[in-house]
Design brief:
The protein is of the alpha+beta class and 189 residues long. The protein is built from 7 helices and 6 strands. The strands form 3 sheets. The chain has a two-stranded antiparallel sheet. Strands 3-4 form a two-stranded antiparallel ribbon. Helix 4 runs parallel beside helix 6. The termini are far apart.
Amino acid sequence: MPPPPETDPRPLTGEPLAIDLLNTRWIDGTGRHDLLDTVEGLAVWLAGEAVRESLGDRPVPVDRHTLDQVLQARAALDEAVASPGEPSAAAIEAVNAVLAHGCVRHVLAADGPATVIEADTPGRLPGWAAAADYLRLLADRPDRIRACGNPDCILHFYDVSKNGTRRWCSMAGCGNRAKAQRHYARHRN
């Protein structure tokens, strides 16, 4: 049995699965980080709330194959969020390439209608689920999928605020820095 994964070091968690996958890369005071640099980092991401909510207790192998599939899905989502509004041909092709390896099957279960996610291999499940979640977000409120307003930040978020005006990945981090910079600029003279 593998040891339990380490604590998730990312500064922003709790986003929908597609955004959570994008946020496996971040920048902080010590530099750039990528949780998916290693299979151990994959284990941390797979143990996270967003993945557990999407896949439930479905077993997903923590190995190089799964990591490669998750990285393919993240690259596709990167391409998709790079062109908000009208997706580029490359973004469409990349996301569809991930989605081609799975599907949702409708079934009648003992407690009523249900859906089951199926993928070519168990290692494709997390990446497929993230790409499918991106489509859900696009169908729901595409204008709410946003990059942080801090030009030095690479995190994304799904704005669920009532008026849809969230600008920062975190008010405590990037938002506070922006407010401090504005204050300093006003009082510098």
